[in-house]
Amino acid sequence: MIDMTAKFHSLLRDTGRSVTRSRTLLFEYLQASGAVSPKQFMDDNAKIADRASLYRSLLLFRELGVVEERLTGGKKLIELTDSYDVHHHHFTCTHCGRTVAITMPKIEAALVTLCEREGFEVQGHMIEVSGLCDQCAKNIKP
User: Fold this and answer.
1) 38 burial via Cβ count (<10 Å: 0-12, 13-18, 19+)
2) What average pLDDT does range 83-89 have in this prediction?
3) Residues 29-47: tens digit of each pLDDT
4) CB 98 within 8 Å of CB 18
5) Which pTM value belongs to this model?
6) Whose CB among 50, 66, 86, 110 lies 3.0–4.6 Å from 61's, allowing a Cys bridge?
């Protein structure tokens, strides 16, 4: 299994960037948190660095292909790219906004097969599923 933190550190060194404690902590935060809003990222990491440094770190992470922004459930979220996380999609609750990462290996394989049959080379895709989470489904009266 690949140590993603070591891979991240190698990327920083290979691109002439410093491996710092704050960059490592921010990367590890993203590994643990999954998709988060920019505001949540800033709020959750306020003890690691000031807002300007957090913003610059996010810009660097985007530039290096470590994170990407996704529009999920109508909200902008930041998460690790597939290079640093397992490829996944999202289920978003339309009532509370909770987002859950989902993997769908059979659908992934079928999608690649379909694209190849149609003469397309898959370079990327995104599947977003919306509906009610179990908690909201229980609490919302018809």
Assistant:
1) middle
2) 78
3) 999 988 888 999 999 999 9
4) no
5) 0.74
6) 66
Domain boundaries, the chain: 1-85, 86-142
Token pair belonging to 113: 């097969």
* Number of residues in the chain: 142
The mean per-residue pLDDT over the stretch 126-134 comes to: 84
DSSP reduced 3-state for 32: helix
CATH code: domain 86-142 is 3.30.1490.190
Residues 110, 87, 122, 99: what is their CA dihedral angle, to the nearest 10 degrees?
Answer: 80
87 token code pair: 């490829």
Q: How far is CA 10 from the centre of its chain?
A: 20
